[in-house]
Amino acid sequence: MLTDTMPKGVSAFPITPCSAGGEVDGEALSRLLTRLLTPAVRSIGLLGSTGSYPYLTRAARRRALEVAVETVAGRAPILVGVGALRTDEAVGLARDARAIGAAAGLLAPVSYTPLTDDEIVEHFTVVARESGLPLCIYDNPTTTHVTIRPDLAARLARIPGIVAIKSPAPPAANVPGHLAALRDAVPDGFSVGFSGDWHATEALLAGGTVWYSVAAGLFPEPCGAIMRAVEAGDAAEARRLDAALDPLWALFRTYSSLRVIYAAATILDLCRPELPRPLLPLPDGARREVAEVLARLDLI
């Protein structure tokens, strides 16, 4: 079944270390990926928003996936971002992903001119049909300016080859209704998972099966511990572990998870990646704050 390509549990989303010119640092990416090859991580989300996919050329994206496939060597499924403004470009990226060895594609409806529902459905239909790659609906309204409402999810989920949805987790009070609406919209067995690390635990406890996690892309073990508690039915422990990471979640909300994780990778001396311009690194004061939080949480 295609749904078997979407494993449950933690899906870790690493950054894509690059030079200022957008050239992938293969050695650094391999080091980051090697950290993720633990039982805590069930799949790897390459070239997600944390992986800066919209800023990279097709050649750079191919290079990143080639490094990932070689490093991971089948030890975890690789889900790879294939989103692009143009449908033909997304088709090409999805074909690349399938040829190189990705298990599935993460397709965000990237937009500049606002998209209608019919345009989004056509986009997903063509990419799925022309690439043959199983696809996950990548709902990230903060960056794409498109919200995948349940009625739209219902249309997309019935396209052959669309096997999952990655949804931003809402605040705890809204989780039951949000999850119920998604479950009612998609077919039985369709994978429903969540992003948004600071709300993810409640979404998982409510029944989400995948945690698409930025933090796990650098710190897989504490995220894996939360998931193990969820899977064991120990809600109190899952919430305790989640609360312990509140200082990190606060940094994500204040500075954006992307900038914080880039700073953290440098602080940990794993690599010295350049944020794609026009994005700028955190100023010195914020970077010191990140270092202090990581030290307080024993993440250094």
List the helices and strands and how they pair.
Layout: E1 9-12, H1 26-35, E2 43-46, H2 58-72, E3 78-81, H3 87-100, E4 104-107, H4 117-131, E5 135-138, H5 141-144, H6 150-157, E6 162-168, H7 175-185, E7 191-195, H8 197-206, E8 210-213, H9 220-231, H10 235-244, H11 246-255, H12 257-267, H13 284-296
Parallel strand pairs: 1-2, 1-8, 2-3, 3-4, 4-5, 5-6, 6-7, 7-8
Helix pairs in contact: 1-2, 2-3, 3-4, 6-7, 8-10, 9-10, 11-12, 11-13, 12-13
Describe this structure in words.
With 300 residues, this protein is an alpha/beta fold. It has one domain: TIM Barrel (Alpha-Beta Barrel). It is 48% helix and 12% strand. It is built from 13 helices and 8 strands. The chain has an 8-stranded parallel β-barrel with strand order 1-2-3-4-5-6-7-8, surrounded by 6 helices. The longest helix is centred in the N-terminal third of the chain and has 15 residues, at 58-72.
Briefly, what is this?
With 300 residues, the protein is of the alpha/beta class. It is 48% helix and 12% strand. It has helices at residues 26-35, 58-72, 87-100, 117-131, 141-144, 150-157, 175-185, 197-206, 220-231, 235-244, 246-255, 257-267, 284-296; strands at 9-12, 43-46, 78-81, 104-107, 135-138, 162-168, 191-195, 210-213.
The CATH topology comes to TIM Barrel
**Poorly predicted runs of 5 or more residues:** none
Instruction: Order the strands across the largest sheet as they lie in space.
Output: 1-2-3-4-5-6-7-8
Name of the CATH homologous superfamily: Aldolase class I
Tell me the strand percentage band.
5-15%
CATH-derived architecture? Alpha-Beta Barrel
